[in-house]
Amino acid sequence: MHWFYDPSFDEASKAITKSETDHFKSLRIRTDEQITVTNGLGRYFVCNVLDAKTGAIEVLSKGHQEPGKVSIHLVQALAKGDRDEQAVQACVELGVKTITPWQSELSVSNWTGKESKSRQRWQEIAVSAMKQSQQAFLPEVRDVRSSRELESIGLGIVLDPRASKAISQLPKDSKEVTIVVGPEGGITSDEMDLLHSRGFTSYRLGSSVLRTSTAGPAAVASIFASLSSW
Q: Which residues form the Ribosomal RNA small subunit methyltransferase E methyltransferase domain (predicted)?
């Protein structure tokens, strides 16, 4: 069953937004087919499509997803190409709560002058990934931050292949974790010192060095598994 997103949707709704209805054709949604609509705040509704052309629907049932036992906040460095977007997509599918774009010193990509448009692009990716993974919570993509503006929510960790601590050694009672993922060129020593001074701790992901597009998702999956959130 395909999932759709409408932030204003509730049990009294008779149609979904036009932007979502426009997807009916590409997904081959037909009249009398069932779909699921979420408001991105935990609620979802199983609906019957009354008219695939207009988006008219009727609500058949409703439900609510419970938030996970562990909340993970991703700080993703801007990266060249679409590697940062790949990381955002995968981490949303895995269940992160928030995403903060990071303009690090070694980021090849630069959002200066196009912050709003770029942030909206990441939010659209988050919406698509939420629907693909059939989740009812939409992660918030926050404003881009510089190194000096980064803050930790809960336990703050920085991925560093040289760290002495393995990510499997995270405190088992952690309920909120903020993960900082650097760009392809890595995190400078000055940035690392700054993050450490702000309470972040370095952890490594095994013995290999991962791309920025895979490091975040690997860390998120590892943390969820080790803290028994899955």
A: 69-223
State the amino acid at position 122 in one-letter form.
Answer: W
Question: Smallest Cα–Cα separation from 183: which of 102, 117, 114?
Answer: 102
- Cβ count near 26 (within 10 Å): 7
3-state helix, strand, coil in the chain (%, to 5): 30, 25, 45
| Predicted model pTM | 0.94
CATH hierarchy code of domain 71-226? 3.40.1280.10
Give Rg (Cα) of the chain. 19
Alpha-carbon distance of 177 to 154, in angstroms, equals 5
Superfamily of domain 3-64: Hypothetical PUA domain-like; domain 1 (2.40.240.20)
Per-residue confidence in pLDDT tens, the chain, 230 aa: 999 999 999 999 999 999 999 989 889 999 999 999 999 999 999 999 999 999 999 999 999 999 999 999 999 999 998 999 999 999 999 999 999 999 999 999 999 999 999 999 999 999 999 999 999 999 999 999 999 999 999 999 999 999 999 999 999 999 999 999 999 999 999 999 999 999 999 999 988 889 999 999 999 999 999 987 67
In the chain, ranges of CATH 3.40.1280.10 domains: 71-226
